[in-house]
Amino acid sequence: MFWNKDIETIGRKALEDLQLKKLSKALKDAASTPFYNKVFKDNKVNVDRITSLDHLKDLPLTSKADLRLSYPDGMVAVPRREIVRMHASSGTTGKSTVIFYTAKDIAEWADLIARSMVATGTTPDDVFQNMMGYGLFTGGLGLHYGAERLGCMVIPSSSGNSLKQIQLMQDFKTSVIHITPSYALHLAEVVAGQGVRPPDLGVKKAYLGAEPYSEETRNKLEEQWGLDAYNSYGLSEMNGPGVAFECEKKSGMHLWEDFYLFEIIDPDTCERLPDGEEGELVITHINREAMPIIRYRTRDLTRVIPEPCPCGRTHRRIERIKGRTDDMLIVGGVNVFPSQIESVLMKVPEVGNNYQIVLDRHENLDRLHVRVELYSKMFSGDMKELNRLKERLSEELRALITVNPRIELLEPGSLPPSTGKAVRVIDNRKI
Amino acid sequence: MPKQISIFAENKPGKIEKIAGILGDNGINMRAITISDSGDYGIIKILVDKPVDGCNALKAAGVAATLKDIVAVRIDDSPGGLHKASSVLAKNDINVDDAYGFTIRGGNEAVFVFQVKDVIKTEKILVEAGFGVVGDQELYLL
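Structure tokens for the assembled complex are given below, as produced in the milestone run.
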């Protein structure tokens, strides 16, 4: 099923022509902003001389720090009266980053999300329950507008309040949900705690986004809920959700190349990497008049899937986000991604859906603690089985991450539940 | 066959208090309690008068609890009492996984409670050797 078959199956040459046209406009718009005006001058960039997509790699990169530097509106390319919306990312460290949209930007973003949802088979007959936070965060409103554009009935339930969420699902026969993977795991436990089998709620699809998670988590969620889970990727700097989305094939996310130019770079050298190699995703927004952003370093690690997708869409796919360049843990000199630990835990039915990774330092040695809750239904009352479970977890983790973890088996419900973006890593090391 | 409630608990203050509170609030009376500890966590084992109700009350409160079949054998409350019963087990090559005991009020008998792999077989062997195996209703009412 297609939303806009012409653009979704566009040939490479026609796509590149369109991209170059849009890039030229985005660069001109960018040059009119105080921030890029200075950056282009400092780097001797003449936007009129960018006449090929190949020239993109010679342009300077933009970082999150640049967005903070240009706070509040140093990257805005249109008069204030043309702006109809702003979003902001949570500024846990320092200032938040603010993104602006014109009415056209909002409409086209909604259209892109409608395209993404249709690619998974969603239709106007679906009831869409949007369990992402509404407000400055883009996750809630982004999908909300897209689902309305598509014609779904939208339940703007936002995040949290699990019992209410379950009641809404039951009363209005929700068929599609948008949710963070950590909250979906938690909600499944709450549903089961109500004596209801999650599949009996009848939800057919889940869009999972806003935090990195593993393929094993997807499998576990699909099994627990009895639905198809689709991977969604976005970041507020690039509008929000809908940058890349899985189609019905569920094998990698189509990054919508008529809106975004993307590159994979080596995060250390900033050099472009060949197709198929894993690196940091860099995106240029070529479809936002209020705020063009050139070569933005997402800090998200992924790789391009160069092979064409059997669904017929020509927009190239990226793999699920492995982690962020800044969420990599270095434990005793070894690089460890939380998603690797998660992939092991989600395969083990004896432990619950919630977990926590705690790092501390003991006698100058890093120690990695993995705290998991025992899953009540799998408890047999046998101490030897518990000890074997602990050993098994420890061995499987060590085999994957080469670090010897300390497994802590906890009682069910003892870790803080996630109702939005989960905090999984606690680093108590004092450097 | 008799059952005990086995409960997974972290090795932290307040755990017994919580469990005893849930059982007390639900009118469940305890006959015996023992804890096997494995460092960070342990298993609390409780003999109660209403094991199914007790276990359900704990589960409803979010506690990881399960019912476990056990063997309860009457022994003399006198020196060598346990030796007689345990030599039957040893002779038949039955391994006791976990055990505890208590004396019966006002009598000169005690009950030896233990977990084994094959409860039915063990009960049969003890009965054939002349021991009184306590059935579930009887045990809960002691």
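The first strand of chain A starts at residue 83 and ends at 88. The CA atoms of residues 204 and 227 of chain A lie 5 Å apart. Further analysis is deferred to the final report.
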